[in-house]
Design a protein that fits this description.
- This protein is 34% helix and 0% strand.
- With 109 residues, it is an all-alpha fold.
- The relative contact order is 0.12.
Length: 109
């Protein structure tokens, strides 16, 4: 597997996305995690659009058997926020978190 190095701006954006996803799912973050408020963040230049990269990565959701409704809530929120394509079906999105190989691709907008 190829190792990827993130810039500090990319890391901050990733942490912000994880925080929003945890907020959507109702998960709490440990008090040791700190995030800069929007007022504290330095001005970031707009990034260049890169070519779309397709990955076959899937994820294993730890609470799939006990709380599958959280994936549904995440799916609905991402659709409303227009972070995923509107033609993404709930079953396709759910298969992303089943931890098994799948031919499904999610288009992130």
């Amino acid at each position: 597997m190829k190792e990827t190095t993130l810039t500090s701006a990319q890391l901050a954006e990733l942490q912000h996305c994880f925080q929003r996803i945890n907020d959507i799912l109702g998960l709490s973050i440990s008090p040791t995690d700190t995030h800069q408020s929007d007022a504290q963040r330095p001005f970031a230049r707009p990034r260049k659009r890169t070519a779309h990269r397709v990955t076959t990565a899937t994820f294993t959701y730890r609470w799939l058997a006990s709380a599958p409704q959280r994936i549904t809530l995440l799916y609905q929120h991402l659709l409303r926020a227009q972070w995923i394509a509107s033609d993404t079906t709930p079953d396709d999105f759910f298969s992303l978190f089943a931890g098994k190989d799948t031919p499904v691709h999610i288009k992130w907008t």
